[in-house]
Design a protein that fits this description.
The protein is α+β, with helices and mostly antiparallel strands and 215 residues long. It has one domain (9-202): q2cbj1_9rhob like domain (Jelly Rolls), CATH 2.60.120.620. It is built from 3 helices and 13 strands; from the N terminus they run αβαββββαββββββββ. A 7-stranded antiparallel sheet has the order 1-11-8-13-6-5-2, with helices on one face. It has a 4-stranded antiparallel sheet with strand order 7-12-9-10, with no helix packed on it. Strands 3-4 form a two-stranded antiparallel ribbon. A hairpin with a 6-residue loop joins strand 3 (55-56) and strand 4. Helix 1 (6-22) packs across helix 3 (81-101) and helix 2 (33-45) crosses helix 3. The protein starts with 5 loop residues before the first helix and ends in a 13-residue tail after the last strand. Bound molecules: N-oxalylglycine and manganese (II) ion. N-oxalylglycine binds at residues 113, 121, 126, 139, 154, 185, 187, 196, 198. N-oxalylglycine (OGA) binds next to strand 12 and strand 13.
């Protein structure tokens, strides 16, 4: 199992430091090779028809909106070994960040994403202030030998008025985490297939007897 090796504690501490200092963390070659390869192979093995066109929002508010995003997604569950290893790793990260930063992260949801050539995700926030559900976003990438001419960068903006942003190439093993309410971001159109996982740690927004699980 890859989830609780001492190496990851070192990585988790670096991510925590970054988030405390800047609100975001960009860590190239950070995801363990074995975990990254298992996840990538699993993503490749998922039938194309199991992927759905990505939408915006959830439940009854779920809308397919090609103006905003055109990628295809598949939610990750415990039903595969790769899925279980990933969810173990993210649970370890969650409890580390809760101990270190008192974030009160309560649950986690994530999906594979496939952007074909030309696909994009326009500038957006993963969460809106006051709605207090998605607190921390995480993205990891599975693309070997990506170069600037391939496009497909994640652009992380500091705030609403930032036009420049920080560009991140979606290279195998890179882990990006950021506070969901603080950083607008977008995915530029890629010239080749782009594979990733996007996930969100949430706080508990249950009220009374109504439990509010991820999905
Ligand atoms: C998202 C997202 C970024 C990326 O899925 O919400 O912003 O680099 N993904 O894939
Ligand atoms: Mn996003």
């Amino acid at each position: 199992m890859t989830g609780d090796s001492p190496i990851d504690e070192t990585l988790f501490a670096l991510i925590a430091q970054d988030i405390e200092a800047k609100g975001y963390s960009i860590r190239p070659t950070a995801l363990a090779d074995a975990l990254a390869n298992n996840l990538f192979n699993h993503q490749q093995g998922i039938e194309a028809d199991k992927f759905e066109e990505a939408g915006i929002g959830r439940g009854g508010e779920y809308l397919k909106n090609e103006f905003v995003r055109t990628d295809a997604i598949s939610w990750i569950t415990n039903g595969s070994e790769a899925g279980r290893d990933w969810l173990t790793w993210t649970a370890n990260l969650q409890s580390f960040l809760n101990r270190r930063l008192f974030l009160g992260l309560f649950s986690f949801e994530s999906h594979f994403a496939h952007y074909g050539p030309g696909d994009y995700y326009k500038r957006h926030y993963d969460a809106f202030k006051g709605e207090a559900n998605r607190v921390l976003s995480i993205v990891v990438y599975f693309n070997r030998a990506w170069s600037a001419s391939d496009g497909g960068e994640l652009v992380l903006y500091q705030d609403n008025v930032d036009k420049e942003g920080i560009k991140v190439m979606p290279l195998l093993g890179t882990i990006v985490t950021f506070l969901s309410e603080e950083f607008p971001h977008e995915v530029l159109a890629a010239k080749r297939d782009r594979y990733s996982i996007a996930g969100w740690f949430r706080v508990n927004t249950s009220i009374a007897a109504k439990v509010d699980p991820p999905r």
